[in-house]
């Protein structure tokens, strides 16, 4: 993930500094940056901080960065627990620093366009939303350590949980199921999270970590009272809209090809930079990042307890 973020910062002309317990020299060389010998040296050199470390380290890194009066972009999920997330928000507020969770899917053109269509009322009131995401099981061991990463639901499906909220609003109940298998040393995991929104809309979020070589794919199917919007990365580079109003002469039922847009990591970096420099609101707030964590944790609890979790009545599942 550090390389994806570094490429985005390089693309917008940022002067790059890197620190990690190991491996930062190679990344710095690849992106024409400078390796720092310590966090203190990093904070002394850099004006903004982008945290791409494993989730268990987010709180401590965010704390040291905002205490050094640096604005922070933090890779998702914002935190491993709701308690840690609230601490991060409180620290940022106390030091008057920007804390932005890197929910980069909000910057993918397909999802951004879908959100705009929903906001414009082109699909009517939300009814049923389906999101899917699939890829190979991450190779670094901490990802498959549930205590460290939160597993598939918190690390991967938090993207689609956030999308469901972005499209259909706050959630009343969460129900989730999960299946894990292992054969000849290869691990596979599938999870299905059902969100019932306060509006009555229902979102289905399905995630999969498969064997090595599993192709990465993602997509959505959003249905409202006036039409549907569908995208599937496995089939095409655009998405199809069907509404009760019919296609306009310029749309012909399809949206333009979205395969050649600017790198979403770059768009995210520019949004963070603008918010840090001008005080504007970024596309994803720290509060939204925390809410996505809370819902993912509710889903994990639902899997463990085999029941639906009432989001309002049963706390924040920290």
From TrEMBL:
<dbReference type="GO" id="GO:0000166">
    <property type="term" value="F:nucleotide binding"/>
</dbReference>
<feature type="domain" description="Gfo/Idh/MocA-like oxidoreductase N-terminal">
    <location>
        <begin position="22"/>
        <end position="103"/>
    </location>
</feature>
<dbReference type="InterPro" id="IPR055170">
    <property type="entry name" value="GFO_IDH_MocA-like_dom"/>
</dbReference>
<protein>
    <submittedName>
        <fullName>Predicted dehydrogenase</fullName>
    </submittedName>
</protein>
<dbReference type="InterPro" id="IPR000683">
    <property type="entry name" value="Gfo/Idh/MocA-like_OxRdtase_N"/>
</dbReference>
<feature type="domain" description="GFO/IDH/MocA-like oxidoreductase">
    <location>
        <begin position="111"/>
        <end position="229"/>
    </location>
</feature>
<dbReference type="InterPro" id="IPR036291">
    <property type="entry name" value="NAD(P)-bd_dom_sf"/>
</dbReference>
<dbReference type="Pfam" id="PF22725">
    <property type="entry name" value="GFO_IDH_MocA_C3"/>
</dbReference>
<keyword id="KW-0520">NAD</keyword>
<dbReference type="InterPro" id="IPR051450">
    <property type="entry name" value="Gfo/Idh/MocA_Oxidoreductases"/>
</dbReference>
<dbReference type="Pfam" id="PF01408">
    <property type="entry name" value="GFO_IDH_MocA"/>
</dbReference>
């Amino acid at each position: 993930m550090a390389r994806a973020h570094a490429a985005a910062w390089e693309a917008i002309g940022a002067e790059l500094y890197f620190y990690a317990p190991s491996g930062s020299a190679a990344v710095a060389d690849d992106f024409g940056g400078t390796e720092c010998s310590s966090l203190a040296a990093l904070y002394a050199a850099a004006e903004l901080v982008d945290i791409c470390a494993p989730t268990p380290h987010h709180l401590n890194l965010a704390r040291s960065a905002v205490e050094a009066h640096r604005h922070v972009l933090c890779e998702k999920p914002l935190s491993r627990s709701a308690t840690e997330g609230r601490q991060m928000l409180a620290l940022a507020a106390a030091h008057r620093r920007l804390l932005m969770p890197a929910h980069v899917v909000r910057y993918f053109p397909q999802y951004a366009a879908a959100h705009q269509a929903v906001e414009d009322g082109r699909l009517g009131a939300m009814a049923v939303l389906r999101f899917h995401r699939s890829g190979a099981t991450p190779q670094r061991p901490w990802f498959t350590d549930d205590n460290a990463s939160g597993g598939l639901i918190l690390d991967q499906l938090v993207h689609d949980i956030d999308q469901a909220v972005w499209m259909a609003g706050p959630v009343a109940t969460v129900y989730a199921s999960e299946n894990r298998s292992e054969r000849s040393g290869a691990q596979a995991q599938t999870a299905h999270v059902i969100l019932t929104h306060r509006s009555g809309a229902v979102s289905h979020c399905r995630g999969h970590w498969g064997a090595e070589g599993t192709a990465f794919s993602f997509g959505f199917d959003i249905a409202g009272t006036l039409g549907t919007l569908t995208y599937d990365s496995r089939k095409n580079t655009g998405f199809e809209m069907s509404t009760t109003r019919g296609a306009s002469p310029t749309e012909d039922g399809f949206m333009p090809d979205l395969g050649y847009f600017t790198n979403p990591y770059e768009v995210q970096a520019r949004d963070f930079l603008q918010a840090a420099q001008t005080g504007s609101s970024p596309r994803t707030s720290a509060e939204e990042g925390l809410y996505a964590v809370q819902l993912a944790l509710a889903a994990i609890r639902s899997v463990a307890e085999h029941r639906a979790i009432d989001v309002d009545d049963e706390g924040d599942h920290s």
